[in-house]
Amino acid sequence: MTPDLASLRLLVLVGEMGSIGRAAAKLGIAQPSASKRLASLERKFGLALVDRTRRGSALTPDGRVVTDWARRVLDELNVLVTGAEALRSRRAAELRVAASLTVAEHLAPGWIGELRRARKDLYVGLVVTNSSLVCDLVRGGEVDLGFVESPTVPAELSARRVASDRLAVVVPPNHPWARRRKPLSAADLTETPLVVRERGSGTRETLERALKRAKVGDLHPVAELGSTTAVRSAVVDGAGPAVLSVLAVDADLSEGRLVEVTVDGLDLRRQLRAVWPGGRRLLGSAAELLAVALRASSG
């Protein structure tokens, strides 16, 4: 039942252009071939997706829903391709970038993709690690620009806010907290074993600083894991609650795999920042990438 990507692109174009013929021309294929692809797609889904008339083609109500999903799949594919290309080219890169995991997984691929659309000859190398090590790489001159999610930045680095984020307490739907009517207190988090990121992670540092401001004690981890994906998977599997970026768990929350639990008296908002060596003006492609990130945050 899994559709091919070319058919999904065709369906999206039909919805945008209102014509199978124009959509086929855009993709460089013959109209009869396009019609066969759409018919095959409809058979796979068991749904009528396109109304065909002499005046043109229009999506059916089911077709509009499927097209919205298809557009999301294609957008995510572009993120995947851009991110993988950046990782592959990091050794011979003209622009060397390091990013913390949340930024690298959810924001940096889009920024890099936009920059490369304007600079098709530019190769971008991306190192993905935690915020503490990003700062070390910038300090050591191993990368031209870094992106971090930690609440503090070393004094010897220059920094600029590029996005805002929020951490959320998340549990699986069968966890007792998912059925609570009253918010948790900050103390509840320190009295409960949590699944957490490793030390040096910006997510963990943000949580620890918020708990310290609330004067409720220290974390008691049930597990310390080296990536956001690992923490998320552990929570889904029932290892315990966790505090993660809403960017990282947005799909899980909307699709019901995880539930966000409200906490009173704890500010889990944070700023995501670009960092570079202090006292040095960003030039060239590093300055261009920062400008892309800033435009994205203001859009």
How is this structure best described in words?
The protein is an alpha/beta fold and 299 residues long. Helices cover 47% and strands 22% of the residues. It has twelve helices and 13 strands.
Tell me the layout of helices and strands.
Elements lengths: L4 H13 L2 H8 L3 H15 L4 E4 L2 E4 L1 H28 L6 E5 L1 H6 L1 H11 L5 E5 L2 H9 L5 E4 L8 E15 L12 E2 H5 L3 E4 L4 H13 L6 E5 L2 H9 L5 E4 H9 L4 E3 L1 E2 L4 E9 L6 H15 L1
Parallel strand pairs: 3-4, 3-5, 7-12, 8-9
Antiparallel strand pairs: 1-2, 5-13, 6-10, 6-11, 6-13
Helix pairs in contact: 1-2, 1-3, 1-4, 2-3, 4-6, 6-12
Mean pLDDT: 91
The topology string of helices and strands comes to HHHEEHEHHEHEEEHEHEHEHEEEH
Report Rg: 23 Å
Task: Please report the number of helical segments.
Answer: 12
Uncertain residue segments: none
Bulk shape: flat
How is the main sheet built?
7 strands, mixed
Report strand %: 15-25%
Helix residue percentage:
40-55%
Structural class of the secondary elements? alpha/beta
Number of strands: 13
In whole angstroms, how far apart are the ends? 37 Å
Pfam families: HTH_1, LysR_substrate
Domain HTH lysR-type: 3-60
InterPro entries: LysR_HTH_N, LysR_subst-bd, WH-like_DNA-bd_sf, WH_DNA-bd_sf
Family: Belongs to the LysR transcriptional regulatory family.
The gist of it:
It comes from Kibdelosporangium persicum. Belongs to the LysR transcriptional regulatory family. With 299 residues, the chain is an alpha/beta fold.
Which keywords apply here?
299 residues; alpha/beta; seven-stranded mixed sheet; flat; HTH-type transcriptional regulator CysL; WH-like_DNA-bd_sf; DNA-binding; LysR_subst-bd
